[in-house]
Design goal:
The protein has about 100 residues and is mainly β. It contains no helices and ten strands. The protein has a six-stranded antiparallel sheet, with no helix packed on it. The chain has a two-stranded antiparallel ribbon with strand order 4-5. A hairpin with an 8-residue loop joins strand 1 and strand 2. The chain is elongated and about 55 Å long.
Length: about 100
Protein backbone atom coordinates (compact mmCIF):
# COMPACT_ATOMS: atom_id res chain seq x y z
CA UNK A 1 0.00 0.00 0.00
CA UNK A 2 1.56 3.31 -1.09
CA UNK A 3 -0.64 5.61 1.01
CA UNK A 4 0.61 6.61 4.45
CA UNK A 5 -0.59 8.72 7.38
CA UNK A 6 -0.63 12.52 6.78
CA UNK A 7 -0.68 12.13 2.96
CA UNK A 8 -3.08 14.28 0.97
CA UNK A 9 -5.41 12.14 -1.13
CA UNK A 10 -8.34 12.70 -3.48
CA UNK A 11 -11.41 10.42 -3.58
CA UNK A 12 -11.92 8.75 -6.98
CA UNK A 13 -15.39 7.22 -6.55
CA UNK A 14 -18.42 7.11 -4.31
CA UNK A 15 -20.59 9.77 -2.70
CA UNK A 16 -17.52 11.89 -1.77
CA UNK A 17 -15.95 11.82 -5.25
CA UNK A 18 -13.52 14.69 -5.86
CA UNK A 19 -13.00 15.55 -2.18
CA UNK A 20 -9.42 16.20 -1.02
CA UNK A 21 -8.39 15.32 2.51
CA UNK A 22 -5.59 14.25 4.82
CA UNK A 23 -5.15 10.60 5.80
CA UNK A 24 -5.76 10.25 9.54
CA UNK A 25 -5.23 6.48 9.86
CA UNK A 26 -3.74 3.96 7.43
CA UNK A 27 -4.66 0.28 7.86
CA UNK A 28 -2.45 -1.74 5.48
CA UNK A 29 -3.67 -5.11 6.80
CA UNK A 30 -7.27 -4.33 5.78
CA UNK A 31 -6.26 -2.17 2.77
CA UNK A 32 -8.24 0.79 4.13
CA UNK A 33 -7.62 4.41 5.13
CA UNK A 34 -9.51 6.99 7.18
CA UNK A 35 -9.62 10.38 5.46
CA UNK A 36 -10.80 13.57 7.16
CA UNK A 37 -14.28 14.79 6.09
CA UNK A 38 -14.82 11.69 3.91
CA UNK A 39 -17.28 8.82 4.51
CA UNK A 40 -18.75 10.47 7.62
CA UNK A 41 -21.20 8.40 9.69
CA UNK A 42 -23.43 9.55 12.53
CA UNK A 43 -23.09 7.53 15.71
CA UNK A 44 -25.55 7.71 18.58
CA UNK A 45 -23.52 7.55 21.80
CA UNK A 46 -24.75 6.82 25.28
CA UNK A 47 -23.25 8.56 28.33
CA UNK A 48 -20.88 6.08 30.01
CA UNK A 49 -19.82 8.00 33.14
CA UNK A 50 -21.76 10.23 35.48
CA UNK A 51 -21.78 13.78 34.14
CA UNK A 52 -20.76 12.70 30.63
CA UNK A 53 -23.07 13.74 27.83
CA UNK A 54 -24.45 11.46 25.16
CA UNK A 55 -25.80 12.45 21.77
CA UNK A 56 -25.22 12.23 18.06
CA UNK A 57 -21.55 12.28 17.01
CA UNK A 58 -20.22 12.44 13.45
CA UNK A 59 -17.07 10.42 12.78
CA UNK A 60 -15.06 9.34 9.77
CA UNK A 61 -15.16 5.68 8.82
CA UNK A 62 -12.61 3.71 6.76
CA UNK A 63 -12.64 3.75 2.96
CA UNK A 64 -10.93 1.28 0.61
CA UNK A 65 -7.54 2.41 -0.72
CA UNK A 66 -8.52 1.58 -4.30
CA UNK A 67 -11.04 4.46 -4.11
CA UNK A 68 -8.40 7.11 -3.31
CA UNK A 69 -5.30 8.41 -5.09
CA UNK A 70 -2.37 10.47 -3.83
CA UNK A 71 -2.77 14.15 -4.64
CA UNK A 72 0.11 15.97 -6.35
CA UNK A 73 0.25 19.72 -5.61
CA UNK A 74 2.16 20.44 -8.84
CA UNK A 75 -0.18 18.50 -11.14
CA UNK A 76 -3.33 19.49 -9.24
CA UNK A 77 -4.92 16.05 -9.39
CA UNK A 78 -4.68 12.47 -8.20
CA UNK A 79 -1.64 10.62 -9.53
CA UNK A 80 0.03 7.24 -9.51
CA UNK A 81 3.15 6.71 -7.45
CA UNK A 82 6.65 5.85 -8.60
CA UNK A 83 9.76 5.20 -6.52
CA UNK A 84 13.30 6.52 -6.77
CA UNK A 85 16.33 5.87 -4.57
CA UNK A 86 18.47 8.78 -3.42
CA UNK A 87 21.36 8.33 -0.97
CA UNK A 88 20.12 4.82 -0.15
CA UNK A 89 16.60 6.07 0.70
CA UNK A 90 13.45 5.11 -1.18
CA UNK A 91 11.45 8.21 -2.17
CA UNK A 92 7.92 8.36 -3.58
CA UNK A 93 7.52 10.48 -6.70
CA UNK A 94 4.65 11.57 -8.96
CA UNK A 95 4.57 9.45 -12.12
CA UNK A 96 3.35 12.37 -14.22
CA UNK A 97 5.69 15.24 -13.29
CA UNK A 98 8.43 13.51 -11.26
CA UNK A 99 7.80 15.77 -8.25
CA UNK A 100 8.54 14.31 -4.81
CA UNK A 101 5.41 13.43 -2.83
Amino acid sequence: MNIKKNDTVIVLSGKDKGVKGKVLVAMPAENKVVVEKVNVATCHTKPRKQGEQGGIVKKETPIRTCKVALYCEKCGKGVRVGYKTEDGKKIRICRKCGNEI
